[in-house]
């Protein structure tokens, strides 16, 4: 299925209509009508009945009297079946039907004209018009084939432009964007002087087809063929942007310079100039300076300061005076605002010359800051749980859904022997992301998901969702069991019917899963976990995420949380030597217990400081490469390595034991 014609393509539509359809009489050297002009001159010189009638029909066509012309042509074909003007009459019929938008009929007439004619000029124009008709009918392959028989070099410039536009439109619909761009640029080269509106329309069309081209050889081929004239600035920018986006800024430089030097009126002039500035500042770097962009004010400010404390501890900011500390921080507040965050990155890059940036913490800033880092060519270590999929300069250090479910499923499968799972999740992006990640991980490890139910975020009664998971909501499907229980209850000779007696004859749950994954917070868990017990779902392992690591879980769910397993990036009570040392240093420095947030930021800062102390960083690209090569770095919670855009690590596996949260030893 070919794509629908888009707006820029439609701008050129008026330029494509049949080359030989102009109503006014043209000069003899106008190839759009030159064949007909020759035929008209022949008709006048011969002054035969069929010649005079052909001339009359041509006059009707030029006046746009298409219906009358077609009526006269029918009489002509019956009266003069062997006329020398048959090919011209069929061509006129085709053009008239194009004027009436009767494209199927027009195709038949133009094909007949091509069969009969030996006139190269007429055949050229009939082929073009046939291609146009097929295009309007949506027969793209047939349109392309019709154009193959043409000789564009023999066309007058205006008609040549139309030829190339139609070819470009066909290539665009076939998703051959490079071919479409080639034809547009060829068409632009043939635009007569002073036709500015036509030029602007074609440049807009060119912008659209260049957008999806990311193949460097195709772009370089286009530039080699069209390295001057209108449209060349777009090619210089596109090739430069390709190199720039792939971190090859030295190669990008000459293409941006060409735009700045030769195309001051180009729409890409300002961007090319800015990118040149970024290239120049790429080499200006302080190898021992780390930039920090965090939300330090507003409702999320307290979390920003927690992350900052972790970074400060990692870089030994509060060590005794006099002790050398070559690595420094430059801290800026983004206030949770995208514009401020991006402006802060510019300041850190151009003014403070930092080698790497840490941040953001707020999820909505992850993507824009990731794109900015890739554009600037500066490593960015993000602390947001939302992953920024921007490129090889962006490193996600936060605890992501994928990391959490990987650890949970591995433990459940290898340690607890779980092969079948159910999921109960809140609606919305948060729950959806965890459900998708968990399901993918279960599939990857060969397990099975037996049920998945979602509930509204403000839900307080979870009986219907649990019932759906265990077959207590589908009473019609279990009507036979319901009837048997009623008969058994009626036949039981007990007069005093207590609540316990009544429950003996309740429909029993069908529990075909061994564990339930619930990505939610303690407030909801305080209602969900007791509901499973109330519906007689027993001996089921509850699995959770880092939000479970909260004293509220015990306060709200109590005994029903006993034995549940969940993960977090850090557990303050861990017996691991690295975790104990970090907790002790944090308490001694800030007189408070660290949370997973401080631990995550500490690890990020510790990694960067260690990489910087291992030798001067000559460039930001080298800093990026050092992070890419990170393997088995000893972090607060275990060994950290770079993998697929993330700084991955073993998480702390936690459980509720004796009414308290405790760590599970699992390797």
Q: What this model shows, in words?
A:
This protein is α/β, with parallel strands linked by helices. Among the domains are: 214-282, Serine Threonine Protein Phosphatase 5, Tetratricopeptide repeat (Alpha Horseshoe), CATH 1.25.40; 286-397 and 594-642, Response regulator (Rossmann fold), CATH 3.40.50.2300; 401-472 and 509-568, Response regulator (Rossmann fold, 3-Layer(aba) Sandwich), CATH 3.40.50.2300. 53% of the residues lie in helices and 10% in strands. It is built from 29 helices and 15 strands. It has a seven-stranded mixed beta sheet, with helices on both faces. The chain has a five-stranded parallel beta sheet with strand order 2-1-3-4-5, sandwiched between helices. The chain has a three-stranded antiparallel beta sheet with strand order 11-12-13, with no helix packed on it. Strand 1 (289-294), helix 17 (301-314) and strand 2 (328-333) form a beta-alpha-beta unit. The longest helix has 18 residues, at 596-613. It is flat and about 115 Å long. The two termini are 52 Å apart. Mean pLDDT is 88; it is low at 1-15 and 20-32.
CATH-derived architecture of the domain at 286-397 and 594-642: 3-Layer(aba) Sandwich
Strand order of the largest sheet: 7-6-8-9-10-14-15
Q: Percentage of helical residues?
A: 40-55%
Low-confidence stretches: 1-15, 20-32
Per CATH, the class of the domain at 286-397 and 594-642 reads Alpha Beta
CATH superfamily of the domain at 286-397 and 594-642: Response regulator
Q: What is the beta-strand fraction? A: 5-15%
Distance between termini? 52 Å
* Bulk shape: flat
Class by helix and strand content?
Answer: alpha/beta
Contiguous helical run count: 29
Radius of gyration: 37 Å
Overall pLDDT confidence? 88
Biggest sheet character? 7 strands, mixed
CATH topology of the domain at 286-397 and 594-642: Rossmann fold
How many β strands by DSSP? Answer: 15
């Amino acid at each position: 299925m070919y794509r629908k014609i888009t707006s820029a393509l439609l701008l050129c539509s008026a330029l494509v209509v049949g080359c030989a359809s102009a109503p006014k009489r043209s000069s003899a050297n106008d190839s759009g009508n030159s064949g007909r002009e020759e035929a008209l001159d022949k008709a006048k010189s011969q002054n035969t009945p069929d010649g005079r009638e052909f001339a009359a029909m041509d006059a009707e066509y030029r006046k746009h009297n298409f219906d009358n012309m077609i009526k006269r042509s029918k009489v002509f074909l019956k009266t003069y079946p062997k006329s020398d003007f048959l090919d011209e009459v069929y061509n006129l019929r085709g053009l008239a039907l194009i004027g009436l938008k009767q494209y199927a009929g027009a195709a038949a007439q133009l094909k007949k004209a091509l069969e009969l004619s030996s006139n190269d000029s007429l055949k050229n124009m009939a082929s073009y018009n046939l291609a146009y008709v097929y295009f309007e009918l949506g027969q793209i392959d047939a349109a392309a084939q019709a154009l193959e028989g043409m000789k564009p070099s023999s066309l007058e410039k205006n008609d040549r432009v139309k030829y190339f536009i139609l070819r470009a439109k066909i290539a665009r619909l076939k998703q051959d964007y490079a071919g479409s761009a080639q034809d547009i640029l060829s068409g632009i080269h043939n635009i007569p002087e002073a036709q500015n509106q036509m030029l602007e329309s074609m440049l807009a069309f060119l912008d659209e087809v260049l957008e999806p081209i990311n193949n460097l050889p195709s772009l370089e081929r286009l530039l080699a063929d069209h390295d001057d004239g209108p449209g060349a600035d777009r090619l210089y920018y596109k090739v430069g942007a390709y190199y720039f986006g792939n971190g090859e800024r030295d190669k990008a430089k000459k293409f941006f310079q060409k735009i700045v030097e030769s195309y001051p009126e180009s729409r890409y002039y300002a961007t090319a100039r800015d990118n040149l500035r970024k290239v120049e500042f790429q080499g200006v770097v302080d190898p021992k300076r780390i930039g920090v962009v965090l939300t330090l004010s507003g409702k999320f400010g307290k979390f920003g300061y927690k992350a900052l404390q972790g970074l400060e501890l990692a870089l030994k900011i509060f060590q005794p005076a006099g002790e050398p500390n070559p690595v420094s921080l430059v801290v800026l507040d983004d206030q949770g605002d995208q514009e401020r965050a991006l402006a802060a990155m510019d300041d850190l890059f151009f003014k403070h010359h930092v080698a790497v940036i840490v941040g953001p913490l707020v999820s909505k800033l992850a993507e824009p800051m990731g794109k900015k880092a890739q554009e600037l060519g500066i490593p960015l270590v993000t602390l947001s749980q939302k992953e920024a999929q921007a490129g090889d300069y962006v490193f996600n250090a936060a605890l992501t859904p994928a990391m959490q479910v990987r650890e949970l499923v591995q433990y459940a499968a290898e340690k607890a022997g779980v092969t079948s799972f159910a999921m109960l999740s809140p609606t919305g992006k948060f729950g959806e992301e965890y459900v998708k990640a968990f399901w993918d991980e279960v599939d990857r490890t060969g397990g099975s998901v037996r049920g998945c139910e979602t509930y509204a975020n403000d839900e307080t009664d979870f009986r219907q969702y649990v019932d759906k998971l265990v077959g207590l909501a589908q009473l019609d499907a279990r009507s036979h069991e319901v009837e048997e229980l009623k008969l058994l209850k009626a036949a039981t000779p007990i007069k005093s019917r207590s609540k316990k007696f009544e429950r003996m004859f309740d429909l029993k749950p069908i529990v075909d899963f061994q564990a339930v994954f619930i990505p939610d917070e303690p407030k909801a868990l305080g209602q969900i976990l007791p509901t499973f017990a109330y519906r007689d779902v027993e001996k089921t392992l509850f699995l959770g995420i880092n939000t479970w690591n909260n004293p509220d879980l015990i306060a709200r769910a109590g005994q029903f949380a006993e034995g549940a397993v969940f993960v977090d990036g850090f557990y303050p009570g861990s017996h691991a030597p690295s975790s104990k040392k970090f907790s002790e240093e944090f308490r001694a420095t800030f007189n408070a217990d660290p949370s997973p947030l401080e631990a995550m930021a500490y690890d990020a800062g510790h990694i960067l400081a260690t990489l910087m102390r291992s030798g001067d960083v000559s460039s930001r690209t080298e800093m990026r490469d050092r992070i890419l090569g990170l393997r088995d770095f000893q972090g607060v919670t275990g060994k950290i390595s770079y993998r697929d855009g993330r700084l991955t690590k073993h998480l702390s596996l936690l459980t509720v034991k004796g009414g308290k949260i405790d760590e599970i030893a699992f390797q």
